[in-house]
Design goal:
The complex is a heterotrimer of chains A (272), B (355) and C (261). Chain A is mainly α and 272 residues long. Chain A has a single domain, classed as MetI-like fold. Chain A is built from 13 helices and no strands. In chain A, helix 4 packs parallel to helix 8. In chain B, helix 7 packs parallel to helix 14 and helix 8 packs parallel to helix 9. Helix content of chain B is 42%, strand content 16%. Chain B is α/β, with parallel strands linked by helices. Chain B has 14 helices and 11 strands. Chain B starts with a helix and ends with a helix. Chain B folds into 2 domains: 172 residues, Periplasmic binding protein-like II (D-Maltodextrin-Binding Protein, domain 2), CATH 3.40.190.10; 151 residues, D-Maltodextrin-Binding Protein, domain 2. By secondary structure, chain C is mainly alpha-helical. Chain C is 81% helix and 0% strand. Chain C has a domain of 178 residues: Orthogonal Bundle (MetI-like fold), CATH 1.10.3720.10. Chain C is built from 12 helices and no strands. The two termini of chain C are 34 Å apart. The chains are: A mainly alpha (272), B alpha/beta (355), C mainly alpha (261).
């Protein structure tokens, strides 16, 4: 009986080997050969070149900042949502997914219209004789784009872990004389860590690897590691170098997987 | 329950939309197909419908943003394109790597509509005119906003002028950016001299803090919206922007610039060569060329089409149809070999990653 | 007071999330072809949209991709969940690890890795290559939505059904499946949305002439977005919003009752 049921995982097993594992092996293969097919470590070592390491560093810095901003914005929001009545909050949660139905590129592009020198925001500021905001084509604009695009990925897992929390535990803490801050620090926050961890990875990884946001909101002036990889593949057609740099990126992803595995043992911090 | 309904309705909506758009798509397949890979927004889509209707050949249409993006797709053979429209130096690269097929000009009787001087120009990369049919040409120059710039502009130097810091738009492609820098320094834009290239690179790095952004075609919207004072732009875009914002002026700098030409070519891997030739022939028809000119505003080498332009100001426009003998130091890009490409790419990456 | 702050905070986040969307909606009524200039109010783009075959085809591709990839991913993912749930720890860790790869891996790496796979097997790029890619990144969303529900289900009801003489398949569909449904639907919805919104992976796995709305828009980003695109996005947005409103209003009370059980 049990083995029969295991067969149901067959299609997925096949699928994950064919479309997840083998493709990754190919990336590794390309990353470790040169254009003549000989083994080399050069493509990996290329990350140490000044341009590449700088692009990586800028990417890490920007995505780190965006992740923190997302967290700071999302946590209170998730708490507010979790405390609302069931039928209201379901709607509101869906409202956070709703923007995703408007195309990601268009949404990001709309920020260009908003942030530009003669853009909507500056028109409003000028109307009230306030100083104008000049962040388009800077790192700040890229961070804004990242926060905007990835905020829902932070809100939803935290919200889920909070909503799943047993109210009785919190009430018990209060009954035992814990004040609000103590309850939060000793009960609520520790219990929400799985959600936080998955939120952090869901924001950090796409922010680290994006090439679209930097191109649209950064005026192509700021080179992120994602831009470098994209250009190696689509323009310079140096696939070996592109794969090599992708492997370097994967190290960060594996790191975040390990961290989330340690902090979130049961894999409960699912997105929904 | 709630979600059940939601999904059901979304699925229903999707199915409806799909069925609504799905029908009537199969027309014109009786004579096979032709897969066209062209620049984005580089012809009037209505001409594709007309072609399908008249010839019964289905057009599969795909677009690219830069020559560099197009090349690997053709080289790797992931897709068997039938017609491409690369620029001069990219055609040279395609030819050098033996990726193009000779065009059978018996199937392209309309080729005569294209002016001889353009075939002459194409000989730079296709010496016997066996592989190419010119489609668009133009120059690269400076577009500036008269209300924001009060001095006469005639030199690339203005792009390095600190007065305009934050108001300068540079081209976001290797060759174009280096063209500007090299020309300004008085070198050839096809230079392979390391010292010259390094100098050009350092100048670009110096310029970077002054630029507002590196753009490709967004320069159009930004200049129309008064976002920047000065931009490097293709002449074809200049005509369009002037139509939308009358304060804009286009100039070819005195140090010289790039005069480019894009041509139709057929890749060797094409499986529908005759259809490809039919397509090229169709594009050379005067009325079609005129439609495309009106739509994309890039100069057409089609003399017969130029005759048909009603607006005299445009027919004789110095921007659209420049008398190149007036300008000095005009050059056309050459393919620099894979090593040359590598140097340019490397230096460009250094510019892009500079502060 | 606290309530006021919560409301205020939600309102601010709302403005942040919806400001660009409002911008797009406004732009869809802009008479001028360029987004840089307001040329007066018009609804002509909504008419032209439906005459624009290229956009319509991209829309149809996008919806078909989302629908098919979400459906197939839901079937494969749900089946996998049922199986994984009763596996031993080692296998379970393996499967959940594999599931996490597309979730955590950079889109650009996933896209590139699939492109390399297709290339080395000489597959011709087109609709099917995008579909395979979308299914691949959709399955994890389904699994991660169904798995938690699977864990909540008590084994005893299923065993009781077996004891009472039901066949395993019958018992599953009668006892387990209804409890899984909400998770399955969430998974489907997530998969559908993700497929709809994906650009990067599609960018690397698409073939000539097959465009989704995303890839179409990306080529237009450089040239200036056609106003028809804004019109289309507005329509999609409004339709989904209206659906949400209707659904949220009508059966809400019944739902509340079910929750308590």
């Amino acid at each position: 009986m049990k083995s029969k049921r295991s067969l149901l995982a067959g299609p997925y097993l096949f699928w994950s080997v064919a479309f997840i594992i083998i493709p990754l092996v190919m990336v590794f293969y390309y990353g470790f050969i040169d254009e003549n097919g000989a083994f080399t470590l050069e493509n990996i070592a290329a990350i140490a070149s000044p341009e590449h390491s700088k692009a990586l560093w800028v990417s890490i810095r920007l995505s780190f900042v965006s992740t923190i901003i997302c967290f700071v914005l999302a946590y209170p929001l998730a708490m507010i949502l979790a405390n609302m009545s069931v039928n209201q909050n379901q709607f509101i949660v869906l409202v956070f997914i709703l923007p995703m139905w408007m195309n990601f590129l268009l949404r990001t592009l709309a920020w260009q219209t908003l942030l530009e020198k003669n853009g909507v925001i500056n028109m409003i500021l000028n109307f009230f004789s306030l100083p104008s905001l000049n962040i388009i084509n800077t790192e700040a604009a890229i961070i804004l784009g990242m926060v905007y695009n990835f905020l829902p990925f932070m809100v939803l897992p935290i919200y889920n872990s909070l909503a799943r929390m047993d109210r009785d535990v919190i009430n018990a803490a209060h009954d035992l004389g814990a004040n609000w801050i103590q309850t939060f620090c000793r009960i609520i926050f520790p219990l929400s860590i799985p959600g936080v961890v998955s939120g952090v990875t869901m924001v950090f990884v796409p922010a680290l690897t994006t090439f679209v946001i930097s191109a649209i909101l950064g005026g192509s002036k700021i080179l992120l590691i994602g831009n470098v990889i994209e250009q190696e593949f689509t323009q310079a057609s140096n696939w070996n170098l592109g794969s090599g740099l992708s492997i370097v990126l994967m190290i960060f992803i594996i790191l975040s997987m390990i961290i989330s595995a340690i902090l979130d043992k049961d894999g409960e911090g699912a997105l929904l | 329950m709630k979600k059940t309904k939601l999904i059901a309705m979304i699925a229903l909506m999707a199915a409806l939309a799909v069925s609504a758009t799905g029908c009537g798509k199969e027309k014109g397949a009786e004579n096979g197909e032709v897969i066209v890979y062209n620049w984005g927004e580089y012809l009037d889509p209505a001409t594709l419908d007309m072609f399908e209707e008249e010839t019964g050949i289905k057009v599969i249409y795909d677009e690219y943003e830069t020559n560099e993006i197009m090349y690997p797709k053709v080289e790797s053979g992931t897709s068997n394109y039938d017609v491409l429209c690369p620029s001069d130096y990219m055609i040279e690269k395609l030819l050098e790597n033996d990726l193009l097929a000779e065009i059978n000009f018996d199937n392209v009787p309309n080729k005569g509509n294209i002016g001889d001087q353009y075939y002459e120009q194409a000989k730079a990369f296709d010496p016997e005119n066996k592989y190419t049919v010119p489609y668009c040409f133009g120059t690269v120059g400076i577009l500036y906003n008269k209300t924001m710039v009060d001095e006469p502009i005639d030199s690339w130097d203005v792009l390095w002028d600190e007065k305009y810091a934050g108001n300068i738009l540079m081209q976001d492609s290797v060759r174009d950016a280096f063209m500007v820098s090299l020309k300004r320094l008085g070198y050839s834009m096809n230079s392979l001299d390391t010292a010259q290239l390094e100098e050009a690179r350092d100048e670009l790095i110096k310029q970077k803090p002054l630029t507002q952004a590196y753009v490709v075609d967004q320069v159009r919207d930004k200049m129309i919206g008064d976002e920047a004072a000065i931009g490097v732009i293709y002449s074809g875009e200049a005509i369009y922007t002037q139509r939308e914002n009358e304060n804009l002026e286009y100039v070819i700098p005195k140090e010289g610039s790039n005069v480019w030409i894009d041509c139709w070519v057929i890749p060797k891997a094409s499986k529908n060569k005759e259809n490809a030739e039919a397509f090229i022939n169709f594009m050379c028809r005067p009325d079609i060329a005129l439609m495309n000119f009106d739509y994309i505003t890039y100069s057409t080498p089609n003399d017969a089409a130029r005759e048909l332009i009603e607006d005299e100001a445009i027919r004789n426009s110095e921007i659209a149809f420049p008398d190149l003998s007036q300008y000095e130091n005009m050059e056309t890009f050459k393919y620099l070999g894979s090593e040359g490409d590598e140097i340019y790419n490397e230096y460009w990456k250094q510019v892009k990653s500079a502060d | 007071m606290k309530k006021f702050f919560s409301r205020f905070y939600i309102a601010i986040i709302f403005v942040f999330l919806y400001a660009p969307i409002a911008t797009l909606i406004v732009l869809s009524f802009n008479k001028s072809k360029t987004r840089a200039k307001w040329g007066g109010f018009t609804t002509k783009w909504y008419v032209e949209l439906f005459e624009n075959e290229i956009i319509m085809e991209a829309l149809s591709n996008t919806l078909w991709l989302a629908l098919l990839s979400a459906l197939i991913a839901t079937v494969i993912g749900t089946a996998a969940c049922i199986a994984i749930n009763q596996m031993n720890k080692a296998w379970r860790t393996f499967f959940m690890g594999v599931t996490n790869i597309p979730m955590l891996n950079a889109d650009i790496v996933t896209g590139i890795s699939l492109m390399l796979l297709y290339l080395s097997f000489g597959m011709s790029f087109g609709f099917s290559t995008i579909l395979l890619a979308h299914i691949t990144f959709n399955i994890p969303y389904v699994i991660l939505s169904v798995m938690p529900k699977m864990k909540q289900i008590s084994k005893h009801t299923y065993e009781a059904a077996l004891d009472l003489g039901a066949g395993p398949v019958y018992a599953f569909f009668k006892v387990v499946f209804p409890d899984l449904l909400p998770g399955i639907f969430t998974g489907f919805l997530m998969a559908f949305t993700m497929s709809l919104d994906d650009f990067i992976i599609t960018h690397f796995t698409k073939g000539p002439g097959v465009d989704t709305l995303s890839t179409k828009i990306y080529t237009e980003v450089k040239k200036g977005i056609k106003p028809e695109m804004y019109a289309l996005s507005t329509i999609i947005f409004v339709v989904v919003l209206v659906l949400l409103l209707i659904i949220n209003k009508s059966p809400a009370k019944k739902d509340k009752g079910q929750k308590r059980i």
